[in-house]
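User: Design a sequence. Structure:
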């Protein structure tokens, strides 16, 4: 019998974050999404109705904090905190007080660090039992991103934590090649796309979670391969390649792969030591593991000190049975992580 809980994502609602620095086009994107027929069974959580210029008429005000939009979507404002808002919204849906919905979108403020929200969705039992983190979408203003990334750490972190990066306002600049390269250095695994006026197919935007039962296994394989794109020359865990270093506040992205099946206790101790020693600088960890005595792959996912309980996936996404873990860090070199792995193994 497996030590790990099987993936129950199908039983939980997907929650996606829409983040991005001030004026980068989050609300424009949200307006477009909520007009799409495929998004009519959505709930959206914003800070205040007055602060977000939703083009839809609030045709029905359920109360001061919840409204039904013209499209049929539910819109609510954050109460004292996001956890309470999520739980209350789900309870009202179950009681039939608001129309049913199958997904939740959370729009953050422009200065928000998305990490606490991701942590809440990953490992708060009062929330994660009912919902799951799906996709982190970050809008990037082509006209102002260079200045913002130079001076605002929040903007850098929003980019580093994203699954999808949407370059907006590209019509205001001559080209976005330099910005695209900078974003790729900060987050080599995120899908990057230029969008005009928030126009994008929702099917291309959501469903980026590694643990996602509705996601085709081929898509999971492609995600892992994109993350490890520059590391495919290596065939053992003591890789010789160079890290991908960005000049943006020392944020680094790298992949560590292991050919042989791993011992879970060693992996668990390794990640625990890493969280304890450098949790604040551990921006995001995402991976798939081949463990001894486990027939199915096991997925791990964490942000800073908080990790989702590991879950067993139904099957491997492709023929590659290597363990592959993606690290996005601040000031943590790949060799430091490997040295800690070796120390944990030596102490076992």
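Assistant: Done.
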């Amino acid at each position: 019998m497996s030590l790990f809980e099987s993936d129950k994502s199908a039983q939980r609602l997907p929650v996606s974050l829409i983040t991005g620095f001030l004026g980068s086009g989050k609300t424009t994107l949200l307006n477009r999404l909520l007009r799409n027929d495929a998004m009519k069974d959505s709930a959206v959580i914003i800070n205040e109705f007055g602060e977000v210029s939703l083009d839809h008429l609030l045709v029905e005000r359920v109360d001061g904090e919840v409204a039904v939009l013209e499209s049929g979507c539910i819109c609510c404002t954050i109460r004292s905190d996001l956890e309470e808002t999520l739980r209350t919204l789900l309870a009202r849906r179950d009681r039939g007080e608001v129309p049913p919905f199958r997904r939740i979108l959370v729009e953050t403020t422009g200065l928000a660090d998305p990490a606490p929200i991701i942590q809440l969705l990953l490992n708060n039992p009062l929330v994660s039992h009912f919902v799951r983190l799906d996709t982190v979408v970050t809008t990037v203003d082509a006209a102002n991103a260079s200045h913002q990334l130079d001076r605002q750490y929040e903007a850098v972190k929003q980019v580093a934590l994203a699954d999808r990066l949407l370059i907006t306002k590209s019509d205001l600049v001559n080209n976005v090649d330099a910005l695209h390269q900078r974003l790729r250095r900060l987050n080599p695994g995120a899908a990057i796309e230029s969008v005009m006026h928030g126009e994008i197919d929702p099917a291309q935007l959501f469903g980026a979670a590694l643990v996602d039962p509705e996601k085709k296994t081929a898509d999971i394989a492609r995600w892992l391969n994109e993350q490890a794109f520059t590391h495919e020359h290596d065939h053992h865990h003591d890789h010789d390649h160079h890290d991908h270093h960005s000049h943006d506040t020392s944020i680094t992205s790298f992949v560590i792969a292991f050919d042989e099946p791993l011992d879970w206790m060693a992996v668990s101790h390794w990640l625990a030591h890493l969280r304890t020693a450098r949790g604040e600088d551990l921006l995001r960890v995402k991976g798939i593991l081949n463990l001894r005595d486990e027939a199915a792959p096991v997925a791990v996912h964490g942000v800073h000190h908080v990790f989702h309980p590991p879950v067993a996936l139904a099957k491997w996404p492709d023929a590659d049975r290597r363990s592959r873990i993606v690290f996005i860090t601040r000031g943590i070199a790949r060799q430091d992580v490997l040295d800690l792995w070796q120390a944990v193994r030596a102490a076992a």
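The first strand starts at residue 5 and ends at 6. The domain at 5-205 is CATH 3.40.50.300 (Rossmann fold).
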